[in-house]
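Lab notebook: predicted structure, single chain.

Context: the supervisor wants predicted structures on file for every construct in the current expression panel, including those that have not yet been purified. This is the next one on the list. No modifications to the sequence; it matches the entry in the shared construct table.
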Amino acid sequence: MTDPRTAPDAPIDRIAIIGGGTAGWMAAAALARLLGPEGPAITLVESEEIGTVGVGEATIPPIQAFNALLGIDEDAFVRATQGTFKLGIEFVDWLRPGHRYFHPFGVHGIDKGAVPFEAMWQRLRQAQGAPPLDAYAICTAAAYAGRFMRPKPGNTPLAHIGYAFHFDAALYARFLRTHAEAAGVVRREGRVTQVEREPARDHIAAVVLADGTRIAADLFIDCSGFRGLLIEGAMGAGFEDWGHWLPNDRAVAVPTANVGPPAPFTRSTARAAGWQWRIPLQHRTGNGHVYASRHISDDEATATLIANVDGAPLADPRLLRFRTGRRDRFWIGNCVALGLASGFMEPLESTSIHLVQAGIARLIEMLPTKAFEPADTRRYNRLMAAEFDSIRDFLILHFHVTERRDTAYWRDLAAMTIPEPLAERLAIYARTGRVYREADELFTKTSWLAVMDGQGLVARGYDPLAAGIPLAEIAARLDRIAAVTRAATGHMPAHADFIARHCAAPALAG
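Prediction complete. Output recorded below exactly as produced.
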């Protein structure tokens, strides 16, 4: 009798994840959780000799769904990672020096039936003036007031609180490793020195470690970082470079001591040849300067960073080099790339961990059999390319649409030719103020509206859907929304108090 486990379309028996860090342990924990003890054996290979990038400490709301999928208690997760909560991102000096705006999670205002909130707001603003968008977003109001709570069900703005997290990426990887190993994942210490290919098809047969250990698998997941040991080194995936649109290619990072209660938001401040992040954790503040090396030297970039941090540095500045773009193919044969091995988007909108999450979700959706159906591979590559491309356009928006012309860096960004999908969005907004979410792309209407308006775009007209509502009714409706939003914020505890009550890390508890 034929063994069903050897049939061409039999379920896979072995998965090898090459590389640890956030991406590797996210993949290991998710696959072990969903495939269960009867599923394939999962081995993760990582080397203590090879460091991880691990500076991305800010996230976006979809990470809540990932943690819930793993059955993770949110307070325990925040406590273990020295985490804080994030209601959005403040952008300072992006439109012009001295200007700031906020990109909130959650929503702006409330629609009226089929008429979007933003259509009413645009009409009112153009007819007689209107308060800024900040007046209608509970997350913006709470962030600037230093307050936080989880959403509260009901007919109240408190039901529309959207949030994510700031955390120590190394601690998050360690936290996930505990979950993954408890679910049966086996970790192997070692450095991959050889990749064996199958002679008959475009697949990887095994990897060989420095000590001679050979690890064979049906499916290989490349989490080896920028070098793409498997997807590029062995499979030759190719890379689409976006440096002509997003020229930043380096970052210098340094942790500093906290100088006050952690703010419930990330801050991004534009600089002469890049931008600077500030990410507050419970035990420290993460800081970094992302920049274009052809416009500023490493020493100058480091000096700019150190001159603009609030607390005392806790370590020496760390320099990172990167290339913005994505693989031409993310899945080849039996090899799938995740994390930095699949591509890199600079951390302006905290999308790196989300892209890992998206890759894992689609891999699970299209989990292969031993046949490795080419149609699954093609669909995975198409969907992941679209995900990267949409995020790329959202990032370009920040750099291209601005009044800044004070340095060659900003003048070059303003003059560049942008991708056609982004040009189309800008044209639609300029005419009618309409914003939209294309299919299931990451960023919502809230995000596009906040950044378009914050970067200085002003619509010439408004969505005709708002023309059927009397202007006085729109004004009264928006006044009520703003008043209720202000009042709701007062019912929220201080961010630091919420952490102390629910999820303070041990060193800070009590």
